[in-house]
């Protein structure tokens, strides 16, 4: 398979998939979508993904592209089982998926660019938007912290990266962008530190992408 | 296992799990959480689920409760494989999970009660909130429609219910609450019609729950 990932350097959903691809050691072509300039709304990208969101993963084999970061990560883990991004036990898998869901359903969708712009269009001023963004991060991280403290041993669940880490590390990056300090969440902070030494997480960093703007 | 589901009759995330439990033929105790009265913020429920959201599934075996509707549905499908709520092929599974993600990540989190209240607290007036709510439903349904038209044969994917249907039917219910007509989405509408004849979907209906308010 010749993979192509449609991505934007600091959008957190494609960042999750970059981590997953790097953990699996899979090569892929990087196709930047300039979300700030509105490239996602142009016909060229709409023809790829009518939802006009990133990521999109083209498998290069003529099948329909894959969308939705969690669906893509689970697919990659099923097709390329090693190294595993999910534990084997159903209950453990439910814990990992719950952590991923807290981020992918309850934090990120409320804070991404299309939502920030929608709030702006409803005349919600910048200070209130900042409070809004912080609120969902704080709520989500307050929920994640005891789970990671209980189930994590270096990473969110156990001592190897899972889909939960693929979600958490981009969300930590987003928290820093919005100036939310991690002091209240030592377990989350520790996973963030750990990821800094891991080559797959380093390869996936926003600043290491071809479309990064310094 | 003696299952207990913490639910609220018309919240769409526990509605998804009710459908899954009914499709699997699993009995459970129903524990209502009065979200309108703020019961989710009281110590009794915080002790169950610190995220203060529904659903929570207590397996009754002393293990930590399960949270996050998609994680719970995948768990139920792994523990009770028949009838299957997921196809077997990894690519097919990715399609089902993408459909579920479009609803559970890109529509519902933007429209649920805590978000409606947060918008209200930022002085976003009712007509704008209605437009906001409609926008995410329209965006999501526009994305889902061609997928269901292509992959569905009565249900979202194929001719038996999957996790995608567990998400879609509650989202159709929510669309009706917000007066979003389904005329533009015949494939979605057809799945909604089909579910009306299915006993598991009927059992899970909001109006058939013990805490329903007429």
From TrEMBL, chains A, B:
One of its GO terms (biological process) is L-phenylalanine catabolic process. It comes from the Bacteria. Residues 1-84 form the GST N-terminal domain. The keyword Isomerase applies. One of its GO terms (molecular function) is maleylacetoacetate isomerase activity. The keyword Glycoprotein does not apply. Pfam families: GST_C_2, GST_N_2. InterPro entries: Glutathione-S-Trfase_C-like, Glutathione-S-Trfase_C_sf, Glutathione_S-Trfase, Glutathione_S-Trfase_N, GST_Zeta, GST_Zeta_C, GST_Zeta_N, Thioredoxin-like_sf. GO terms for cellular component: cytoplasm. Keywords: Isomerase. Its EC number is 5.2.1.2. Residues 89-214 form the GST C-terminal domain. SUPFAM superfamilies: GST C-terminal domain-like, Thioredoxin-like. PANTHER family: GLUTATHIONE S-TRANSFERASE YFCF, MALEYLACETOACETATE ISOMERASE. Belongs to the GST superfamily. Zeta family. This is Maleylacetoacetate isomerase. The gene is maiA.
């Amino acid at each position: 398979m010749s993979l192509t990932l449609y991505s934007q350097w600091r959008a957190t959903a494609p960042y999750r998939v970059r981590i997953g691809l790097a953990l699996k050691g899979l090569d892929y072509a990087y196709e930047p979508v300039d979300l700030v300039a509105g490239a996602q709304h142009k016909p060229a990208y709409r023809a790829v993904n009518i939802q006009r969101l990133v990521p999109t993963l083209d498998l290069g084999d003529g099948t329909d592209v894959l969308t939705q970061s969690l669906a893509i990560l689970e697919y990659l883990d099923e097709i390329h089982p090693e190294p595993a991004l999910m534990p084997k036990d159903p209950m453990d898998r439910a814990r990992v998926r719950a952590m991923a869901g807290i981020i992918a359903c309850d934090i990120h969708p409320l804070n991404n660019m299309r939502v920030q712009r929608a709030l702006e269009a409803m005349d919600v001023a910048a200070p209130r938007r900042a409070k809004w963004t912080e609120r969902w991060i704080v709520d989500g991280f307050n929920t994640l912290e005891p789970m990671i403290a209980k189930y994590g041993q270096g990473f969110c669940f156990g001592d190897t990266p899972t889909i939960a880490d693929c979600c958490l590390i981009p969300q930590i990056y987003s928290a820093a962008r919005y100036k939310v300090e991690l002091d209240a969440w030592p377990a989350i902070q520790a996973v963030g530190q750990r990821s800094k030494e891991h080559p797959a997480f380093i390869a996936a960093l926003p600043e290491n992408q071809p479309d990064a703007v310094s």
